[in-house]
UniProtKB/TrEMBL annotation:
It is found in: Cell membrane. This is Sodium/proton antiporter (CPA1 family). It is a multi-pass membrane protein. It comes from the Bacteria. Residues 12-429 form the Cation/H+ exchanger transmembrane domain. Keywords: Antiport, Cell membrane, Ion transport, Membrane, Sodium, Sodium transport, Transmembrane, Transmembrane helix, Transport. The keyword Transmembrane applies. It comes from Marinoscillum furvescens DSM 4134. Belongs to the monovalent cation:proton antiporter 1 (CPA1) transporter (TC 2.A.36) family. GO terms for biological process: regulation of intracellular pH; sodium ion import across plasma membrane. GO terms for cellular component: plasma membrane.
Length: 430
């Protein structure tokens, strides 16, 4: 299929599935679309037992999408920028301490808790995984997905302070999580990656705490600085245009995202963090009236439409990815999936409760903040994309890649369908 054919198919499915969800299921958009895509995937897999060509054809189409490249290389920057545009900057600055602590300390704590629990639990289920790969799984599954979280919290009447904590943490811990993942992946490759061709053996690379800190700092600080520079320049340019040419304002914001993302890639700094910071600079929520008017309403309508369309496509892709991931299913896969879900929830609870318990000595938190942040910490397409990216590395054993991918997919599906659908019950009791 050509690129045009693939895009046409995705938009067609997005329109049909959205119509079904609105008229029949009436679920929150992201949950409904993924549920329909999952049901279609299951139907195709069952049909494949009688007509194998159907499953093979569906697998071929899904694999042509290259989920990792589509999300990480194309969609993610647009989605993060659009999400950050609607965040209230004033409220975010008021809650900057808990947001930053949760996004950094919470994510790192969760990464090591998940990695440690997986290291000791999965061998009992018949899968031996080196500790570095357990940490890799912890890094890709610990960040909450801002795309899923932002879509969910819009549906509930949360207090502004709690809403900004959830939204801010999900936006920033996504960028931090990707950096942690790449850092651990770099350590694993230096240790086990072999020669340049990717053949096994010891990589021979020297790993020190200083080199890890330097890599982490460059990605995070570089991404934030790049986003601030582009955001400031973009805001000044939009202020100069001053709504006289709305189409030019849209083109300017599109250019900022695309050029900024490309420069982040060339400089090896965090593109996701750059997009979030850029969006906060250009967004008008929480600014005084004069500054708020710099970015016209037309720009926000455009980005809202783009955000909704890309969200629909993303969660349909997550659901359809089951057709490919089903190939990794083994007799103990169900136990691995359940264990992964329980471990991730445990790590999320600790990663949230420890920082908040310490910070509660200095500031007041809303009732059930820990419970809401724990259960509302949805995982999404980013975790699946990072897990799929491991297939590129031939020095990682196939069984390790398959186990990580299957456990990741189970955690993502559970968080969106189960946690997402029951979040309202938790909030009603609050």
């Amino acid at each position: 299929m050509s690129i045009l054919d693939l895009i046409t198919l995705l938009i067609f499915l997005a329109a049909i599935f959205t119509l079904i969800n609105i008229t029949a299921l009436k679920l929150p958009s992201t949950i409904g679309l993924m549920a329909i895509a999952l049901m279609m995937s299951v139907f195709i897999l069952i049909l494949g037992y009688a007509f194998p060509a159907v499953t093979r054809g569906a697998e071929h189409i899904v694999e042509e999408f290259d989920f990792k490249e589509v999300l990480m290389g194309v969609m993610l920057n647009f989605l993060l920028f659009a999400g950050a545009l609607s965040v209230n900057l004033k409220k975010l600055l008021e809650e900057r301490v808990p947001v930053l602590v949760l996004a950094t300390v919470g994510t790192l704590l969760s990464t090591f808790i998940v990695g440690t629990l997986v290291f000791y639990t999965f061998p009992v289920l018949g899968v031996e995984i080196d500790y570095i790969y357990c940490l890799l799984f912890g890094a890709l599954i610990s960040p909450t997905d801002p795309i899923a979280v932002l879509a969910l919290i819009k549906k509930f009447g949360l207090s502004k302070n709690l809403e900004i904590k959830i939204a801010g943490e999900s936006l920033f811990n996504d960028g931090v999580g990707v950096v942690v993942f790449l850092t651990i992946l770099g350590i694993a490759q230096a240790s086990f990656g072999g020669d340049a061709a990717g053949h096994g053996g010891h990589g021979g690379g020297e790993i020190t705490a200083a080199s890890v800190a330097l890599l982490f700092g460059k990605e995070v600080i570089g991404g934030v600085l790049l986003g601030a520079i582009f955001g400031f320049l973009g805001f000044r340019l939009l202020n100069f245009i001053d709504n006289d040419h709305v189409e030019l304002e849209v083109l300017v914001t599109l250019t900022l995202v695309m050029v900024g993302g490309r420069i982040a890639e060339l400089l090896h700094v965090s593109g996701p963090l750059a997009m979030v910071v850029m969006g906060l600079f250009i967004g008008n929520e929480g600014r005084d009236e004069k500054l708020a008017n710099a970015t016209g309403e037309y720009v926000f309508k455009f980005w809202h439409l783009l955000d909704e369309a890309l969200n629909a496509i993303l969660f349909i892709l997550v659901g359809l990815e089951m057709i490919v991931i089903a190939n990794t299913f083994s007799p103990n896969s169900i136990l691995i999936g359940i264990a992964g879900i329980l471990i991730v929830l445990t790590a999320r609870f600790i990663g949230v409760s420890v920082p908040i318990s310490i910070m509660s000595f200095f500031r007041t938190f809303e009732p059930k903040t820990i419970a809401i942040l724990t259960w509302g910490g949805l995982r999404g397409g980013i975790s699946v994309a990072l897990a799929l990216s491991l297939s590129e590395f031939t020095w990682i054993e196939p069984v390790i890649k398959e186990t990580i991918l299957f456990a990741t997919y189970c955690c993502v599906v559970f968080s969106i369908l189960v946690q997402g659908l029951t979040m309202g019950l938790l909030l009603k009791k609050n």
